Structures are given as structure tokens and as C-alpha cells.
């Protein structure tokens, strides 16, 4: 273990910022935590933005097929109403969870805080070791990992998911779990409706089962079945791994690296409470809990892939 003096000399020997870093330390220090909390987090990654748009388009497509191909032409009024309400509620909850996951700060560590003054303010004990990220020049908290796409260190980073264009970390894991759960449920519902629709169309010889022509109806239903199977398989697996990680208080990165826990683990329900907040209740299923409108004026930051509004 290195003494504190050597640690400070090491920071001085490796400059935290260079002339090309374009990092404004004065503006960073003047920003309060309340000010940062009012900003919407968004990652400007081309692949992630394309994947996020594709996710929305696929959900909208599924809603179109379910509503206009299967339910509205149905002669059973209550069948159409009940299934329409259920499917559209699941779709809204899934897309809302997707937005909350994408636009919530996953637990980013402030950039450039690995300064000599900041380290002295920590009042470290002799021999106590802290870690500095050489990529974003920050003091890495325990269990934080650097994301090469977000260009930030993320607390309790589980993984970076391009489908939500964001990291899954300490502050947005709950919304990611809800997103995978609602997508899986809506996929199962769509598959069940497709099965009933195929049976109805075969019995009616494809004459009155849809307002579209039989070839178009078949193509739309087959594509929806494939989409539902793929979405259900992916999201069900992700939902299971996320619940397993939460109950074992171990992120996916920590599991893959076989990191030995140096922290006090919160197992099972304690882990669930720490992620979803409070004792078990229906509020766990609500992606709108804690939502508030953010400030609208855009304020792009230099030297980072995210911008704030």
C-alpha cells in the first residue's frame, strides 16, 4: 500500500488535464448537485440512437398490427376493448420505462475531480488507497467502472445497452428492469393474440378476419410473431439476469471479472429494496415514480458525448 504523499505526487506527475481537453474546471466546480439533477442525461452515440429509434418503431409497429389488423376488425366488442386496453397500457409502460432508462443519469462520476485539492479535502488516512481513472480524470468510487461509450465512470455499472442508448447503473437499473419486463409481457400478449387471429382467419377462410387483404394480413402477422419471439427471448433473459444480479448484489461486470466483493452485500429483498426503493408495493411497477419536468434550455458541454437540458 502506498503512502498518501506518494499518491499526491503521482497525481502531480500525471497532469489531469491537457491543453486539448477543453474541460472547464471553474464551471464544473460552480455547478451544484441540485443544478445537475435538473438536467436531462442523453448520450450522443450514433449506434445507440439508431437502436433506440428502432426499438420505438418496432413497438409502434406491434401496436399498429394488434390494433388495426386484429382488434378493430373483430366482431367481439369486449374482446377488442379489453385486449386493446391491456396491450396499449403495456406498450406505454414499456416506452416510458425506455425513456426513463435512456434519459436518467446512470450514476456518472463528475469529470476531472481527481485534483490535489480534492484529494486533500477527503482527509484520507495514511496508507489508504484510492483510484483515479486515467480516461476521465476522476476519483473512482468503489464498484465504479469506466464506459468507453459514455466517456464517464459509472457507479455500479452493469453494462452499456445500445437499445436504451445508455449505461445501466446505480440510478437507472430500476427503469431498465421495468423496460425488459413490460416488453416481455407485451410480446407474450402479442403472440397470444396472433395465435387467436390465425385460428379465426383459418376458420373464416381469410374473408372477414381483417380489413387488409389475406396476403398482407399473413405478412403482418408473421412479422409480428417473429418480432414477438425475438423480443420476448431477449428481454426475458435480460430481466432474469438483472433480477439475479440485484438479488446477489453483483453487477454483470463484476460477475464476468470474478471480482471478490469488498463491500457488504445486500442480498435478495434488501437488494431489491435498494434498487426499487422502499418495501414491496405496486409503486415498484410504476416508471413514472419520481418523474419531474426538467429544464428545457439546451446547454451542450464540451469534451463529452452527453448533453444536458
UniProtKB/TrEMBL annotation:
Keyword RNA-binding: no
Broad class of enzyme this protein falls into: transferase
One Gene Ontology molecular-function label: protein-cysteine S-palmitoyltransferase activity
Residue ranges constituting the Palmitoyltransferase DHHC domain according to the UniProt record: 132-258
Keyword Protease: no
UniProt-listed InterPro entries: Palmitoyltrfase_DHHC, PFA4/ZDH16/20/ERF2-like
Topological relation to the membrane, as annotated: Multi-pass membrane protein
Membrane-traversing stretches: 49-71, 77-95, 175-199, 219-239
Keywords per UniProt: Acyltransferase, Membrane, Transferase, Transmembrane, Transmembrane helix
Location relative to the cell: Membrane
One cellular component (GO) term of this entry: membrane
Coiled coil: none
Enzyme Commission number, as recorded: 2.3.1.225
Highest taxon, organism lineage: Eukaryota
Catalytic activity: L-cysteinyl-[protein] + hexadecanoyl-CoA = S-hexadecanoyl-L-cysteinyl-[protein] + CoA
Family statement drawn from the similarity comment of this UniProt entry: Belongs to the DHHC palmitoyltransferase family.
Domain notes: The DHHC domain is required for palmitoyltransferase activity.
Protein name stated in the entry: Palmitoyltransferase
Species whose genome carries this gene: Prolemur simus (Greater bamboo lemur)
Amino acid at each position: 500500500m502506498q503512502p498518501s504523499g506518494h499518491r499526491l505526487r503521482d497525481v502531480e506527475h500525471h497532469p489531469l488535464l491537457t491543453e486539448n481537453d477543453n474541460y472547464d474546471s471553474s464551471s464544473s466546480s460552480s455547478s451544484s448537485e441540485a443544478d445537475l439533477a435538473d438536467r436531462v442525461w442523453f448520450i450522443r452515440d450514433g449506434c445507440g440512437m439508431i437502436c433506440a429509434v428502432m426499438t420505438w418503431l418496432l413497438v409502434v409497429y406491434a401496436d399498429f398490427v394488434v390494433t388495426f389488423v386484429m382488434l378493430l376488425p373483430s366482431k367481439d366488442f369486449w374482446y377488442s376493448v379489453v385486449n386493446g386496453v391491456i396491450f396499449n397500457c403495456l406498450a406505454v409502460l414499456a416506452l416510458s420505462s425506455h425513456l426513463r432508462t435512456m434519459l436518467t443519469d446512470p450514476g456518472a462520476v463528475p469529470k476531472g475531480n481527481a485534483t490535489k485539492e480534492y484529494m486533500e479535502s477527503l482527509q484520507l488516512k495514511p496508507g489508504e488507497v484510492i483510484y483515479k481513472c486515467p480516461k476521465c480524470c476522476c476519483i473512482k468510487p468503489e464498484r465504479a467502472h469506466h464506459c468507453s461509450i459514455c466517456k464517464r465512470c459509472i457507479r455500479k455499472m452493469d453494462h452499456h445497452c445500445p437499445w436504451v442508448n445508455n449505461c445501466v447503473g446505480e440510478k437507472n437499473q430500476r427503469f431498465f428492469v421495468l423496460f425488459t419486463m413490460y416488453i416481455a409481457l407485451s410480446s407474450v400478449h402479442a403472440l397470444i393474440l396472433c395465435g387467436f387471429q390465425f385460428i379465426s382467419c383459418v376458420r373464416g377462410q381469410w374473408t372477414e378476419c381483417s380489413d387488409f387483404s389475406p396476403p398482407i394480413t399473413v405478412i403482418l402477422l408473421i412479422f409480428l410473431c417473429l418480432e414477438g419471439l425475438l423480443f420476448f427471448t431477449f428481454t426475458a433473459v435480460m430481466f432474469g439476469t438483472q433480477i439475479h444480479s440485484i438479488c446477489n448484489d453483483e453487477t454483470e461486470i463484476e460477475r464476468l471479472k470474478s471480482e471478490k466483493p469488498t463491500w457488504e452485500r445486500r442480498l435478495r429483498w434488501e437488494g431489491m429494496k435498494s434498487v426499487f426503493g422502499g418495501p414491496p408495493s405496486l409503486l415498484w411497477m410504476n416508471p413514472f415514480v419520481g418523474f419531474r419536468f426538467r429544464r428545457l434550455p439546451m446547454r451542450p458541454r464540451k469534451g463529452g458525448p452527453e448533453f444536458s437540458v
